[in-house]
Amino acid sequence: MRSGAKTAIVGGVFLVVASGVGYGGFNLWNGIMGGDDVSSMGAPRRSGPVTSDEVTATARDFLAAWSAGEAERAGQLTNDPVTATSAVAAYKETASVSAATITPETPIGPTVPFTVKATVTYRGVSKPWTYRSQLSVVRGETTGRPLVKWVPSVLHPKLRTADATIRTGVAKTASVKAVDRNGVELTAEKYPSLAPVLAELRKRYGAKAGGESGVETWIESGTGARLGAAADAPLLVLTKGRPGTLRTTLDAEVQAAAEAAVGNFEKASVTAIEPSTGAIRAVANNPATEYNTAFLGQQAPGSTMKIVTAAMLMQNGVVAGPNSPVECPSTVLARGQTFQNLEKFSIANATLAKAFRQSCNTAFIRKVLPELADKNVADTALGTTARDSFGIGQTWAVGVPAFDGSVPESAGSNTPASYIGQGQIQMSALNVASLSATVKNGGFLQPYLVAKDLDDREFATADRLSSGVASALKQMMRETATAGDGTATKAMAGVPGPKGAKTGSAEVDGQGTSNSWFTGYSGDLAAAAVVQSGGHGGDAAGPVVARVLKAG
């Protein structure tokens, strides 16, 4: 066979296609690639980087062995023959691949990309399956032979762990047709951020939604669990089952606005909640990956935390309300660390409301710390308010995986840092959206994505805010969104009232620009967004939240 030959057939069904990479002809005597022992016994031991000829020949031989279904031979051409042999055998048997054509592309150094065109056959039903992957060639540490560096992703790019395998069969759970609160179908194709959400909904509720399973190809862990977003979007569907309908709390129009809003930034997340019920109306991330950052992210929330800190001050008698006088110098020294305001601004004759709407860091540290220290609650008061009044740190039963937020007991300079949303405080966009929702509603209602009676989940609860504290927080958030000196006024300008908001910027070690945070509400919709390295909250995250609120 000459270079550029189209096919080499083994066993009538598997073949390798040489594709412009200078692969010379090879015969199929004695199975594949000639009859010599692949160990090349007697050849001088080589060292140094693999050569281009070695890369070409090793990749050619391995791909031919794999496509021929010669698992043991393929394994011997790798640096992990035991693992590779088992994986290649499973590819044919467990994945039910009945035929495969593998087309190598031009090597890039020691790496060879290739395309697999396979046929999957299960109980008499066959379907084509095409995807791309790649392999790398290394020199064996003991033999000096060129070998394929074995990693599971050689067989398929989504095989990422050694115990994972590709399996074809009747799906363990039926697919679901997720719909929004008005019955509009929700798909990952139309709403990319929902891919991991829909995957988890199928995993948890597929058996309860009344559908019938089809035949699919998927990736399975060593424990038998389907992995990643493949749980909703299988690698291949041979026969479709009948999906069951699952109603969610999402709103298709708000979801569309959320998807568009985060798309304006390289890395951004947003979540929207209905304050009067806790129902989640939207969740979006950019990039839209298998990791739902809006629910699972664990980041410092910056000055959005001042919502909780302000509540803590009033609950502990440090201030009486929004008109209480506070000091707002440009800097303050607290527990051995100097804290400052943005561009070191200061406010003369400040009140709590003015410090809140202009986001004065020093005001939330200077007076607070000594008074709380006198009461021996300085290091625990913020966590108590976060948990008992805002539900942060309790166990949330959303319906899909979600971070519950964390406001741990602090010590040293972490305590004053926590008052302004730094230190050890960690929250997601969902948690911060819930802060606004709690203020708007006057009490915490745990956010949820599907009705709790679907699986008898127990929701987290918290004490309602006192009428005085709730009224004060609403006033300060309203002024932040409407007053001439409010940090959120520009972003919230086109958002209908009644409305309120709070901006935040969170410094991250090793990151030149702070993360941009923003949370707010309008009518019966609350939202929060974070834009990585977005700077001031009103500049980046603010427009994201505003666009979502306008859609409500």
Structural class of the secondary elements?
alpha+beta
Radius of gyration: 29 Å
Got a strand count? 18
Mean pLDDT rating: 89
Oligomer: single chain
Main beta sheet: strand number and arrangement? 6 strands, mixed
Provide a count of the helices.
15
Q: Enumerate the spans where pLDDT stays under 50 for 5 or more consecutive residues.
A: 1-14, 18-41
User: Strand-residue fraction?
Assistant: 15-25%
Shape: elongated
- Give, in spatial order, the strands making up the sheet with the most strands: 1-2-3-4-5-6
The helical percent reads 25-40%
Distance between the termini: 66 Å
Can you describe this structure?
- The chain is of the alpha+beta class and 552 residues long.
- It is built from 15 helices and 18 strands.
- It has helices spanning 52-67, 71-76, 81-93, 195-205, 252-262, 293-296, 306-315, 352-357, 363-366, 368-374, 381-390, 414-419, 429-441, 467-482, 541-551; strands at 9-10, 14-16, 97-104, 111-122, 125-139, 146-148, 165-170, 176-179, 215-220, 236-239, 244-247, 268-273, 280-286, 331-334, 337-340, 499-506, 515-522, 525-531.
- The strands form five sheets. A six-stranded mixed beta sheet has the order 1-2-3-4-5-6. Strands 13-12-18-17-16 form a five-stranded antiparallel beta sheet, sandwiched between helices. Strands 7-9-10 form a three-stranded antiparallel beta sheet.
- A hairpin with a 6-residue loop joins strand 5 and strand 6 (146-148).
- The longest helix has 16 residues, at 52-67.
- The protein starts with 8 loop residues before the first strand and ends with a helix.
- Mean pLDDT is 89; it is low at 1-14 and 18-41.
